[in-house]
Write a structure and sequence with these properties.
Length: 388
């Protein structure tokens, strides 16, 4: 099952004006991703996705170039079933043979960022090929699934204090969600404004619905503490990225200060970053992004670290269809996995790329049953929205 071709494309899908939202990333007018297609000599096609930008919009020219011009040629002729070996070869680069012989990593200097995003895309596509070649969904190859359906939370929540209740209620009405996430942080200017929005949200949805908040790492430690104090009676299920992911000492300090569980990980690369977070007591919930952390292979390794430290896993899935489906398989197979992120902001990279509707029913998402990722991707949509 040799690899015949590797092609990455920068896909940029416009978001209709009425569905655009404004956050600390500005007004999001497009959804961008690097979408990867790998085909074997026997005609099996695997789809992957890499991410290198915060939020949904960004410049993917460099990542696409890396996939097509550097990593892609190194894959031609390789056995697509050798997923772990390919991962380690790309991660360790020119020292891959020595790494394998010595039994420990000898990574490239550029072992984070674009390198991991490219490895992520390749890894997801190879797992898709592996599942299709064996006529099995990926979760079956990872050891089985814990359930046929997984609980999901609606991810959105940008409205002001006057409108946040109606916005979150619309999520409940749409998918029967019993858990909701809203954005806070620098988008509101001051912690007091964010706190007022959260208080309004809790009052509107009542005590029976889980409520999470996400600051996108925009608070200082002092601001995060002030905010947490102001919403102490709102029973928050987690506080996501309260401070910058680069401030691990600050994360640990905030976690020790607050009773609100800390969720972190969408900005982290590889199991090594998550091992440091666990050892530093920085988090309660890990949120690896399969399109950035190293793909399905690395997400499962991260899930093992979470389990070993009695932490929970809720992958960051504000992404395109290949990443979202990859996350479903990881969650279904990983003992630490417990909830799916389902974007309720405009996300054409999931809903327009997948021919089959992706829906939540009674707050639950079905685990794919068909081989590979279980994603029936629409290549016409990719061709239509390729950015040259």
């Amino acid at each position: 099952m040799r690899i015949k071709s590797v092609q990455a494309r920068w896909v940029q899908i416009p978001i209709e004006a009425a569905r655009q939202h404004v956050s600390d990333f500005g007004r999001l007018q497009t959804f961008d991703a690097a979408i990867l297609r790998i085909e074997t000599e026997c005609g099996i096609v695997g789809w992957g996705e890499g991410k290198n930008a915060a939020g949904s919009a960004g410049d993917y020219a460099a990542l696409v170039h890396l996939l097509n011009r550097e990593f892609g040629p190194r894959l031609i002729g390789r056995d697509a079933s050798q997923i772990t070996q390919i991962w380690e070869d790309l991660y360790n680069g020119s020292r891959a043979v020595a790494s394998a012989a010595r039994g420990h990593p000898l990574p490239e200097l550029a072992r984070r960022g674009l390198t991991l995003a490219a490895i992520s895309a390749i890894d997801i596509a190879l797992w898709d090929i592996r599942g299709k070649s064996l006529d099995q969904p990926i979760w079956a190859l990872l050891g089985g699934r814990k359930a046929t359906h997984l609980p999901a939370y609606a991810s959105g929540g940008w409205a002001d204090a006057a409108g946040i209740g109606d916005q979150l209620q619309s999520y409940i009405d749409e998918g029967g969600f019993r858990a909701l996430k809203m954005r806070v942080g620098s988008m509101d200017g001051r912690p007091q404004v964010s706190a007022a929005r959260v208080q309004a949200a809790r009052k509107a949805i009542g005590p029976g619905v889980e409520l999470m908040v996400d600051a996108h790492g925009t608070y200082t430690v002092a601001e995060a503490k002030r905010f947490a104090h102001m919403v102490a009676d709102c029973d928050l299920a987690w506080f996501e990225e309260p401070v910058s992911a680069d401030d691990r000492a600050g994360l640990a300090e905030f976690r020790a200060f607050s009773h609100i569980p800390v969720a972190i990980g969408e900005s982290e690369c590889s199991r090594f970053d998550f091992a440091a977070l666990a050892a530093g007591r920085c988090a309660d919930i890990f949120q690896p992004d399969p399109a950035f952390c190293g793909g399905i292979t690395e997400a499962m390794r991260i899930a093992t670290i979470a389990s070993a430290f009695n932490l929970r896993l809720a992958p960051h899935l504000w992404a395109g269809a290949p990443c979202f489906f990859a996350g479903l398989h990881v969650l279904a197979a990983a003992p630490a996995g417990f909830i799916v992120e389902f974007s309720l902001g405009a996300n054409p990279m999931i809903h327009d790329l997948s021919r089959a509707p992706v829906r939540a029913v009674d707050g639950m998402i079905a685990v794919p049953e068909t081989p590979g990722l279980g994603l029936d991707i629409d290549p016409d949509m990719i061709a239509r929205f390729v950015k040259d």
